[in-house]
Amino acid sequence: MALTLEHVSKRFGSLVAIKDLSLTFERGAIYSIIGPNGAGKSTVVNMVAGSYTVTSGVIRLDAHVVSSLAKHQIARLGISRTYQNLRLFDGMSVLENLEVCFFTDSLPGLFRRGGHRMTKVERLKRCHACLHDFNLADVAENLAGDLPYGRQKVLELARAFVTDAPVVLLDEPAAGLNHTETKEMARRIASLKRSDRAIILVEHDMDLVMSISDRVDVLNHGELLYSGSPDAVRRNEKVQEAYLGTAAELDIVRKLTEGRRTSGGIRAHAGVVRH
Amino acid sequence: MGKSVFLRRTGLIVTLLVCVALLVKVPALPPYYVRVADSILIYIILAVGLNIVVGYAGLLDLGFIAFYAVGAYTYAFLASGQFDIHLPFLIILLIGAGTGALAGILLGFPVLKLRGDYLAIVTLSFGEIIRILINNADDLTNGPQGIAALDRARIFGLPLISPTNFYFLLLILTIVVCGAVYFMERSILGKAWRALREDQDATRGLGINTTGLKLAAFAISAAIGGATGVIFSAFQRFVSPESFTFQESLLVVLIIIIGGVGNIVGIAAGAILLIILPEVLHFAAQYRLLIYGLVLVVVIVLRPNGLIPPAFNLGHVIRKIQALWLSPSNT
Ligand SMILES: Nc1ncnc2c1ncn2[C@@H]1O[C@H](COP(=O)(O)OP(=O)(O)O)[C@@H](O)[C@H]1O
Ligand SMILES: [Mg+2]
User: Fold this and answer.
1) I want to staple B244 with a disulfide (CB 3.0 to 4.6 A). Which of A14, A19, A202, B69 is the partner?
2) What is the ipTM metric for this complex?
3) Does A89 touch chain B (CB under 8 A)?
């Protein structure tokens, strides 16, 4: 029982963003996808979540062929995500941002297909419990757009987890966070690991990645360069070479191979425009 | 403190009583005024209906009057000598809501992939197509001559004759529609519409079928348009295509914009202003439209978010009343 990518490729015109990628993500673990900017990490997330269609190959969740479904159907199967750039509903309250996740569950049977109809009381209970878990209870009634950036990142995380989805994709949850917030985010994500859930993390902060991942997949130019435990990735020569590509990242590899953790948190994309 | 609560509570009761008294007393005015009041109520209902699509779901629909026309002709077909069918008014009211909703879904399916300006233009064309269709389908609609001598509407045997009868019917429908729409706005459906308006893609990412969500907005709003058309046609006892021009669609959109998009209280204010204004301006003869246009421009410039601020909505009014009611008074 797992999420699998089988020989998946993605082309944008002449650009091959993902080339023949095969990966398996089992429940009960945290996976990280790393790689230099433009390696195709977000493209993988977007294909799994149905924002992009695959050019070739198949993505499956257990027995379902995810890659032939519409985006909302994929979400209904239990694949939820956050976005590299925040996509909250700014004009709605924090609580409402979570409530809409249960819209389809709250519909009468005719429009819902299966399951029982969620009542308003149940919905609010779930959402308030989630807000409590994510330390957002005090701002439940505030507009999402009025929260400080760090808390908006947490709210987006909460929105991805509130429905208990078995697969959660996190696209750079720590981007733009300060050191303390990043530490907090790492602790939070680690605590969300559960035997019935696969967490797939795209992240540039190597401290965060190395401290909480069970497996790290390294992408380079749309291809899987290496896949293994954090320690194995740190020692792998091919990975080091790939990261030697840019001057900014040279430093990181050096620090990583020396096995030292810098206090400021390492950002492979420091000063680079995000896509 | 207790004293001020007492005063404010008394003030509230007086205000509410004055409102109710005013509404009930309208029929005591000369028939001309009652007709204007009827017209205002019709446009409030239409605008509150269209607001579901424009204000909640954020889709600009410039052909809304087509659904009103569908409802009006539904009454004309089912309560006249045209096909010699004479169904009761209340039944046709329901059928009219149904045919309106059906027309909304038929329009919705092909156009909902479009956004923004493209959607506006296609809906505009749809409105015109319906009108031109009515104008040319002589066998069905008598074309430009329209259908006359429609049945007199009856509710439980009581005939609706005067503008006053229709005034009360429209008043009830206005309250019912505003209440139902307000309930929808507050429900999870209203929240999903707001999410859709803010970010369609992220909304789909939460497992929400956004096409269905838009269709629901189109269908509900068109049902309200259809039902209103039935009443209009029962009131006039005559329908012809010229009641359903693009100007009418535009007027309903204007009411929403001038009053305050997404705000039921604002829409009521917008309808009152835009319906009364031309009547008041009768004295200005040929300058009437010029002044009308100027007033609109002034309103838009001074209050770009509408006459009534977004914070002053029906929910705000209801909460104010509740708070005053529940607050302790130790006079
Ligand atoms: N929607 C798109 N249209 C065209 N090219 C895209 C699109 N999305 C991503 N790309 C390209 O695909 C490559 C991989 O991008 P992305 O997956 O965002 O990289 P990463 O997240 O690893 O930084 C980049 O060259 C990027 O420019
Ligand atoms: Mg990215």
Assistant:
1) B69
2) 0.84
3) yes
Q: Residues, chain A, total?
A: 275
Kindly give the distance from the C-alpha atom of residue A118 to the centroid of ligand 2, in angstroms, as a whole number: 35
Q: Which residues contact B112 (CB under 8 A, 6 or more apart)?
A: B119, B211, B214, B215, B218
pLDDT band at residue B329 using 50, 70 and 90 as cut-offs: low
Give the Cα separation of A199 and A166 in Å (integer).
8
CB A64 within 8 A of CB A152: no
Query: Chain A contacts of B210, Cβ < 8 Å?
Result: 72
Does the CB atom of residue A220 touch ligand 1 within 6 A?
A: no
CA A14, A19, A25, A29 dihedral sign is: negative
Inter-chain touch B194–A89, beta carbons under 8 Å: yes
User: A275 C-alpha vs ligand 1 centroid, how far in Å?
Assistant: 7
pTM: 0.87
Domain-wise residue ranges, chain A: 2-244, 245-275
Instruction: Find the residue in B nearest to A156 (Cα).
Output: B202
**CATH architecture type of domain A2-244:** 3-Layer(aba) Sandwich (3.40)
Of B188, B203, B210, the CB nearest to A99: B188
Closest by Cα among B211, B231, B310 to B46:
B231
Q: Which of A55-64, A141-150, B51-60, B276-285 has the lowest mean pLDDT?
A: B276-285
